[in-house]
Structures are given as C-alpha cells and as structure tokens.
Amino acid sequence: MHMRGMAALAGVCFVIGSCRTTSGPPGFKGKPPALDVPRAGVAPRVDANPGDPAWAFAAVIPALSMSLGPDAEGLSPVPTEVRLLWDADCLYVRFLCEDDEAYSPHDRRDAPHHEGDVVELFLDPVGDGRQYVELQVSPRNQVLDQLIFVTADPACLEDGRLTDEIALRDWWAHIEWDMPGLRTATGRLARGADGWIADIAVPAFPLLRRLGLSSFQPMNLRAHVMRYDRPRLSSQDAGAQTPARAFIAMNWAPVAYGCPHISPAAMGTLRLVEAGAE
Known about the structure:
CATH class: Mainly Beta
Oligomer: single chain
Radius of gyration: 18 Å
Shape: globular
C-alpha cells in the first residue's frame, strides 16, 4: 500500500551501501541472491530501444520467480529478463517483459501503478533496512518514486517482512519525494515479440547521499527486483464491464507475496564490480 505523505503502513500488504549483511537481521531465515554487475564500457541510452548495443555487456537475471505465499498458488511467472550495468553516474536497469496485454490503468506520477502491470526496483545502499528507495515504472512510462524510512531497528519475520509492530508504528513512505535526475523510458520488445521494455537510470547522488558519496564505485547495494503482471481472467463473464484480473507477483529475491515494500531484510545484493565491456 502506497500512502500519500509520511504515513504509516495501514496494517496489511497491498494485494497487491555498502551492504553490511546478505542474510538480514535476526529472525530472517532466507538466503537472498547476489549478482555481480559490471561497469558499463558505454552508457546505455535509456531509450527502451531493443537494439541498444550497450546492454549486450550487462549482468543478466534471466527470469523472475513467483513471490512466496498461498496467494501465488495456481499462478505461473511470466517470462521476464532483467539486465544491469553501472558507471560513476548511474545504475542502469533494463526489464524485458513478455506480455500479451500491457495493462496500465493510471497516467500520472505517483499513482498506485502496482494496480496494473509494473516493474519495481527497491534499493538500500547502506544495507541496514532503515532507509530505502522504491521505484515503479508502468508500460506507459509513468513513475512512482518514494523514499521509505524505518524509524526503529527493523525486526523481521522469517520471510523477511517487518514485524507487525514495526510495520504499523515505524514504517513511513514519503511519496511526495521525487528522485532528482531519475530517467526512465518504455517501449515495445523487438519486432515480432509481444511485450514491453522498461529502462531505468538511477542517479548516484540522491541514492548514495546517506553514504556521503556522489558517484557509484565498486560496492554492494541491497535490492529487490520485481515485476507485477495482471492478465485478464479467462473465466471472466464476457458481459462484465470491468474485466477481472489475476495478480502475478514475481521477484528476484524471494519475498512475501505483495510485500516487498515492508521486506528490506529479504533484499538480494547487487555487487558493482569493475569488470565490464572492453
């Protein structure tokens, strides 16, 4: 649930730095993934052009898996590939989303884009779960960007979610915040393929400010990489005015279904490394 202003979590999940540790605080039982991300020899253009050669040298997450929980039963992940690069100025992320129908009900900034098809990126450069950024990009290239604060030690459950007490009392989302210098673009997959591309360039300074840095360097970033797809239900009554839709929640690091925004302990690790394109 994304709330206007510095508002506390309303009690349920929407149905929606250097990294100090990859296992999270006491209570968390998961083993989040890690990925080496190379420095870009040439910066991507961030124009969602499927032919941009810079992405050929990126680190690849070849697929996302279903998020955890009983709500995911009977659903299957949709093919999604994620590519990542970095340079001193930006972290670059490209989502390649196969999709028969790009559903995007909102057309303004900071709307609840997770109510339609969306890709999401959460980044915690310090890695302590106390302050992190959430970015959403819809197929229309509409953005939600917000800064999340946890104002107590982020105690968590076994699946990485904050405890109810912390989530209700100490979780805050500053949705009025706009990330300075953020760039995004969306477009269609290569000719003959159904789906969409989302490119994101995350600028260094606003992300790394808490570390006292203004540029990326070899370092670790805690991260969630997510995609939501909302296909029409085939069992829908053909005469219905508003088609019913399934909610397919997919992740890189396993996270409770619909709850990445309150699961900082479950984030994986992006390791920014020097090795890159020649």
